[in-house]
């Protein structure tokens, strides 16, 4: 197997809003390589429907946005992180607009000026969600991708998957542990390659919701960045808090499809199969309650009634209003013979967002010198025990900005352009291949274990059982990893197994119910658990 080596100033692993916004900010100062597991657009950002939360309305305030975020986070938000991110929201939205992102506008008849149309979403006390119809992520990603592809200082490596990090310890250097580069699996060339980074390596790989059987995420959301950071020696936090989006389309014959939070913000109701509403029975905010409350309510009603799904209905609104506000959802549903303007839509909860991740400071710096983590892969403290809707894209863009400040100020000036030879990949001589069907079977098994045992409602017996099963699967996959030719499927299931183990261990440590973590053994919140769950390698 051949080995190709790349050299750059900054290596960015991941092609979503966080990674690409950082690449554009850095490219005016240094050379950048961006690697993507698939095509650049195949990222979670592309599929984000709702929008980006920021204070633009005169009736809104930064303090109100902070209060909503902290309330939703159920006592586990880091106050400094929340203030930092929300305080810099507007300037980062302005930067997106400067790049060419077009957010929907509304005409203000009083001043005859166009201003942003702001959606209301669950957990928000004001309309503050900027959006591009119901395909905001695609609108942002399209602009960033086009600009990145055209920039002469940015090199793009698609169909490339980071395998593991190389640190100074790996190559026997003394002093502070720092990142040197990474091994890359080039799936199109079927070979392991190496990339040396003079200044920094940035993880922007997204979350790990593909560890669950039902998810709104693309297949690439396999927790790669969290897993490789953990294996390199970074701490992680709050991985027991995986957000389940309440309203994913239920249709066994169609791909998983998210029905955005904005539908409920615009007045959609949730119904039992008999046509009765149920959310007022669970929370005074009804359909505008935070996602954890709604997801548990749906889960409870489905189990109580032995129903396969609940229903979302906005059909009482004028047809053209629905089509104008949600053109993407409307057209996608029509393709499977569902009409958003005249029918109740079958929905179920699905894994959506990883609230925990690699521990970072306000510049995205991890425990390893020169290694940064930004976006969903990271734990900044913004989300606490539950994420406020549309705060995730905001976090991506703010940390793309803040990480660039630190890299430009503190890393680029200290570059020593001496390339340390990265060690050869340890299993170049493996010639055996593994049956793809076996890997897919094991992945399905893992995802079912996580859905049944570590899902919306948990207990200690289920968690212990899950951990035992995960350990057995891990032993099998590690054997394959050491003895066969690697592949994307093998790398992804290996990473997901490592993530699954961290999720279960974190859940077992939190002996209370809080936010997205609900356990029948400890159904109430306990004050002495008002701290993040931190795991150390």
UniProtKB/TrEMBL annotation:
One of its GO terms (biological process) is 'de novo' NAD+ biosynthetic process from L-aspartate. Pathway: Cofactor biosynthesis; NAD(+) biosynthesis; iminoaspartate from L-aspartate (oxidase route): step 1/1. Keywords: Cytoplasm, FAD, Flavoprotein, Nucleotide-binding, Oxidoreductase, Pyridine nucleotide biosynthesis. InterPro entries: FAD-dep_OxRdtase_2_FAD-bd, FAD/NAD-bd_sf, Fum_R/Succ_DH_flav-like_C_sf, Fum_Rdtase/Succ_DH_flav-like_C, NadB, Succ_DH/fumarate_Rdtase_cat_sf. Its EC number is 1.4.3.16. The keyword Transmembrane does not apply. It holds the Pfam family FAD_binding_2. It is found in: Cytoplasm. One of its GO terms (cellular component) is cytoplasm. Residues 444-527 form the Fumarate reductase/succinate dehydrogenase flavoprotein-like C-terminal domain. It is an enzyme of class 1 (oxidoreductase). GO terms for molecular function: L-aspartate oxidase activity; nucleotide binding. It catalyses: L-aspartate + O2 = iminosuccinate + H2O2. The keyword Oxidoreductase applies. Its main location: cytoplasm. Gene3D superfamilies: FAD/NAD(P)-binding domain, Fumarate reductase/succinate dehydrogenase flavoprotein-like, C-terminal domain, Succinate dehydrogenase/fumarate reductase flavoprotein, catalytic domain. Residues 9-393 form the FAD-dependent oxidoreductase 2 FAD-binding domain. Signal peptide: none annotated. Its cofactor is FAD. Catalyzes the oxidation of L-aspartate to iminoaspartate. Belongs to the FAD-dependent oxidoreductase 2 family. NadB subfamily. This is L-aspartate oxidase. The gene is nadB.
